[in-house]
Design goal:
Length: 485
């Protein structure tokens, strides 16, 4: 979108927050870059320059606006939903791959040379992988400076900087303030030591019912809970573990994070955003689905429905298998049994464990599961494939290959594969026409009742069929589609 200067200028003049993250506006006369919804008076069009990423604006010599904090705007839906190499690279950078494995490690994971990868990212984003990772480090540093009382040396290390000097230089360059000055602007110190209180922005509208209703209704005891109006769960992260509390607000999601290692901050935030599908573009989705006269009333009734995601794709795949042909309560019971058997314990009030790793599950005797023998065979095949790496469901996974690999496992049919594609792989076009709830909802609405006919009708909903699934499921009397009391 950044290449369409006229459209970008109109968005800036209207201060339309729906375009936050789609592009960034740099102002030649002030040397700052802003999000489209920045509250300051818009500059003259001839003084505007548009960039596809915050990193590109920073690399061009612009610093972040102190009013609108463009580095904290929602990410572009393109990087969440696209399946090409650039989108995969963006998701992997957000998940900390460059900080852990360097640019060569990112390139290897994507199947490119370092030079090819840099050329791809420069062409589409105006910045290479190092600049994109640096922009993420700067955002992590700002969060830690503003939300903790940590010494600056610890902030620098937790943000991924190699030295305090590099940390100081980057903060001054990006925010036009020293770290000390940035902290002085934050106001009162945090009220709970060790807990980070953050705001997760999103594109309005957002319908929280199916998001938080589903998470609360399907939560695994010990790993997840609903308490005091918030969804809480444990997180397994690259450098340690964490506990997050998420609660919906009118213009953001309140996020409270407790981490055993602050280097995991940006990764934890990225995973929470994927869990709640906060980088979706609800206006584009609702316009497409609302064009179908039979879906239009559902869209009008609950605009901004999201697709609940996951913080751990491997965990979700295991839970999807355990949920085959059983009630929600039975699926929670099966998962809780695994957690108690081989989950790693954590200290918290209310939560007790991290969900087990595939390696730990592969060593578990499947007889502990009170399921049919065929399901035990499928369980063993799944956790073994996840543990040895022959099945990749990570943020950089190829969705078509992942689908094929899942279908090759015993006990995996189209329903389970598409649910995993929808929730774990983040495919916005995943569709499950054989699902009983979908078929009943389709029949009641006057949509085709057979899977084949429904697939033909659903072509008009592409590439947002996963969102249509959420609307259809919501027509039934399902607790997962209602916010807990």
């Amino acid at each position: 979108m950044h290449e369409d200067a006229e459209r970008c200028a109109r968005a800036v003049r209207s201060k339309d927050s729906r375009f936050d993250g789609w592009f960034f506006t740099a102002v030649l006369t002030t040397g700052v870059y802003c999000r489209p919804s920045c509250p300051v008076a818009p500059p003259k069009v001839e003084n505007m320059r548009f960039y596809p990423s915050a990193a590109a604006a920073q690399q061009a010599g612009f610093r972040a606006c102190k009013r609108c904090h463009p580095d904290a705007s929602p990410g572009s839906p393109l990087w969440s939903h696209r399946a090409d190499a650039v989108a995969k690279a963006m998701r992997m950078i957000a998940d900390g791959v460059v900080d852990r494995a360097g640019v060569p490690g990112l390139a290897r994971a994507l199947g490119y040379s370092v030079r090819q990868l840099e050329r791809l990212l420069l062409a589409e984003l105006g910045a290479g992988p190092l600049a994109l990772a640096r922009a993420q480090r700067a955002q992590t540093a700002r969060l830690l400076v503003e939300t903790t009382s940590l010494p600056m040396a610890e902030v620098a290390a937790a943000s991924g900087f190699a030295s305090v000097r590099a940390f100081n230089e980057t903060v001054r360059e990006v925010f036009a303030l020293s770290p000390t000055d940035l902290r002085a602007r934050r106001g009162p110190a945090p009220d709970t030591p060790g807990v980070l209180s953050l705001r997760l922005p999103f594109r309005a509208p957002l319908c929280p019912d199916n998001l938080f209703g589903h998470l609360a209704a399907t939560g695994v005891p010990g790993v997840e809970e609903w308490r005091d109006g918030a969804y809480r769960r444990t997180l397994r992260l690259p450098h340690g573990h964490g506990v997050v509390s998420l609660s919906p607000r009118p213009d953001h999601v309140a996020c409270r994070l407790s981490l055993s290692d602050l280097r995991d901050l940006s990764i934890a935030i990225a995973r929470c955003r994927r869990l709640l599908d906060l980088d979706a573009d609800p206006v584009a989705v609702d316009e497409q689905l609302g064009a179908d006269p039979l879906l239009a009333p559902l869209v009008a009734r609950a605009p901004g429905r999201r697709v609940p995601g996951t913080v751990d794709a491997d965990e979700f795949a295991v839970r999807a298998l355990l949920g085959q042909q059983v009630s929600t309560a039975a699926a929670r019971t099966h998962a809780a049994r695994l957690v108690r058997a081989v989950g790693d314990p954590v200290e918290d009030v209310g939560l007790t464990h991290l969900f087990p790793t595939p390696g730990a599950l592969a060593e578990l005797d499947p007889a502990v599961l009170a399921v049919p023998g065929s399901r035990r065979t499928a369980f063993r095949a799944l956790v073994t494939a996840l543990a040895d790496g022959s099945l990749d469901l990570g943020v950089g996974a190829d969705r078509d290959r992942a689908r094929a690999d899942l279908l090759a496992l015993p006990g995996f049919g189209p329903w389970t594969v598409e649910v995993i594609a929808m929730r774990a792989l983040g495919d916005p076009d995943a569709f499950i026409p054989t699902d009983l709830g979908i078929r009943v909802a389709a029949r009641d609405l006057g949509l085709p009742g057979t899977p084949a006919a429904l697939v033909r009708r659903a072509r008009a909903w592409r590439p947002w069929r996963a969102y249509a699934v959420q609307h259809l499921w919501a027509t039934g009397d399902h607790a997962v589609n209602r916010m807990p009391a």
